[in-house]
Amino acid sequence: MLSLPVRPSALLPCLPRSRSLLLHRRFLAGTRTLHSSFGPHFQTLNPSIRKPNPSTEKLSPSIPSRSSITVTCNRYNSWQSPRRYTHSTTAMEQLQQQVEGLNLNAITEFPNCYPDVNPLDVYRAHLANVLTEVTGVDKNIIYPALSWTQSLDKGDLVLAAPALRLPKGGPKPDQIVQDWAAKFPENDPLFEKPHVHSYFMSFFFKGAPLVNSILPTILQKGKTFGTNPSLGLKDPKEPSAGRKKIIVEFSSPNIAKPFHAGHLRSTIIGGFLGNLYEGAGWDVTRINYLGDWGKQYGLLALAFEKFGDEKALEQDPINHLFQLYVRINTEMTEEKEQIAKRKEAGEDVTEAEANSLDEQARRYFKKMTDRDEKALAMWKKFRDLSIVRYKQTYARLNIHFDEYSGESQVSEADMADIGKQLEEKKISKEDNGAQLIDFSELVPGKEGKRLEKPLVRKRDGTALYLTRDISELLARHAKYNFDKMIYVVASAQDLHLKQLFKIIELLGHKDIADKCQHINFGLVLGMSTRKGTVKFLDDILRDVADKMHETMRKNEDKYNQVENPDAVADVLGISSVMVQDMTGKRINNYTFNMDQMTSFEGDTGPYLQYAHARVCSIKRKAGLSDEEIASADFSLLTEAHAVNIVRLLAQWPDVFSNTLRTLEPTTVLAYLFKMTHALSSSYDVLRIMGSEPAVLKARMALYEAAHIVLGNGMRLLGLSPVERM
């Protein structure tokens, strides 16, 4: 758990007055009783304290009662006296200490409220409490109804009156909103008076408290800012119960074939999802389920026997095997066409078919399934050499796997057992010697028809992909007992995954099927392995790196300052490829475009890296240490550009949480580009060099916070932020 020790008193609002009449009267009497809910969230912040059971235990004198906590409050000045922050001060404590009138009554009762990691939850909780007093609507209805705006000019939070479940027959929502806005406190410590449009109320943060709470929080948390490890707990009320387990299966190339841009989509998305769930506190296992079994490897073995070269195999296994694959596949296609023509002409082609490459490949694979030592040795050599080469590519993409599995790892005995279960439970049936599943007989309505009639075993007894996937899924659950498993597979496999999950359910494992999710994606257009027109990923990365290197050389002074220009150019090239892939929604197809992806114009990988490198350059020029930056007087940041950047920075934990719902890399990428645009427009206004020392330090703190958030977002996507270019 990434959190700081928090005293019970640090979680309480310390106010001079409350908008609640009851609390106000108690305050006038000298004390105030606040209803608070320390239980779940306080234990998350401080796991060593267990919430007692009031029905069986007496409350310890050291733990306040849940029902009421009496606090004597001291008056604090507002933002008139700037304060220095230490790393032991949380955002909520800073707001409590500095702002009078802060309303955080029962903040931990709100759903999905994590004030220890997301400062905006403090703002939402305060606003929900204030609006409850203004509107009479339950705060637990208001809190989740507070939404983001589309852009900063429309405010920071927005509330739509219809979302509050207003009773029918009353005033129209647009009139109600006008009344509520008029009743909103004139001098709220965190928010300006709301703006009204139709039945929406838009709320703008006040700049001073935001700047003074967000910047020190970012500087304090650094690389952990935005993440929320509490989301991965099995039981948020009891952290000792441990973390939830997730399996992410992705990349999954076919061995002996080159890693091309089509494989890249699964790899990029899967790597991102692994990072995302780790940031959310889940226990993540990344699995590469290789396509390493099937008749095509019998065909490849034939090709190697006919055309293979041991030396070429050792030097460049992937490309050599791929060339053999294309060559033998071309011969097999031509052979099939000739046999078909002879058959049409009335010739007897029985012998030709029996000795065809296709039939030879089938027989060779049968030897593999029968565990023939020679056949398996050849296959294993192809597999091992392929994995070694793939690992080199994955390392360039910041990708790692905890397990290299594959179709070959599924035992014939397990598949035979699954086949037996399918028959016994009357899920599968025989059809011309093969076994198939007719979903229209098992699942009512249109769903059953859409699932079609997949084969689970061929006439010769050979299992199919679906059979293997059933066995692998059940074995995987037995091994890991996962809480969730994600398959990152192209949309072309939508039907296959739906069939798999439904079969698991029909076998009596609905609980396992419900834990599985297919994360699909569109295609990279223009790729075709069978025709030999594949663009190898290593070649693509080499080409884009060369182009980036050429661009870097145009500025000789900056180029000479880069410690390792080849490595930087490689990172820029990889970034250009990855950002183009992540720009749109996963399901969208896109055409690979070298010129577009390597451009510094527009929202591209090179531009994002440039924005990060530029803010790093500002820090180098300022020459300030982290300690000096942390001691900055943030109250000097009053310019609209500065406040707007902080407003965007404050959104990052929300963006992270929202991305956990969308599972779309573009959610993060769109935010990062919005941030880079705000930074770019600020440099002429918020100058570092030539500024007064105190102003310089404050602005540098702002840019350092932006540097942290940009880096965090880029690393989440799997990018390597560069500091010079």
From TrEMBL:
<keyword id="KW-0067">ATP-binding</keyword>
<dbReference type="InterPro" id="IPR036695">
    <property type="entry name" value="Arg-tRNA-synth_N_sf"/>
</dbReference>
<keyword id="KW-0436">Ligase</keyword>
<keyword id="KW-0030">Aminoacyl-tRNA synthetase</keyword>
<dbReference type="InterPro" id="IPR035684">
    <property type="entry name" value="ArgRS_core"/>
</dbReference>
<dbReference type="InterPro" id="IPR014729">
    <property type="entry name" value="Rossmann-like_a/b/a_fold"/>
</dbReference>
<dbReference type="InterPro" id="IPR009080">
    <property type="entry name" value="tRNAsynth_Ia_anticodon-bd"/>
</dbReference>
<dbReference type="InterPro" id="IPR001278">
    <property type="entry name" value="Arg-tRNA-ligase"/>
</dbReference>
<dbReference type="Pfam" id="PF00750">
    <property type="entry name" value="tRNA-synt_1d"/>
</dbReference>
<keyword id="KW-0648">Protein biosynthesis</keyword>
<protein>
    <recommendedName>
        <fullName>arginine--tRNA ligase</fullName>
        <ecNumber>6.1.1.19</ecNumber>
    </recommendedName>
</protein>
<dbReference type="InterPro" id="IPR001412">
    <property type="entry name" value="aa-tRNA-synth_I_CS"/>
</dbReference>
<comment type="similarity">
    <text>Belongs to the class-I aminoacyl-tRNA synthetase family.</text>
</comment>
<feature type="domain" description="DALR anticodon binding">
    <location>
        <begin position="608"/>
        <end position="725"/>
    </location>
</feature>
<dbReference type="Pfam" id="PF05746">
    <property type="entry name" value="DALR_1"/>
</dbReference>
<dbReference type="InterPro" id="IPR008909">
    <property type="entry name" value="DALR_anticod-bd"/>
</dbReference>
<dbReference type="GO" id="GO:0004814">
    <property type="term" value="F:arginine-tRNA ligase activity"/>
</dbReference>
<keyword id="KW-0547">Nucleotide-binding</keyword>
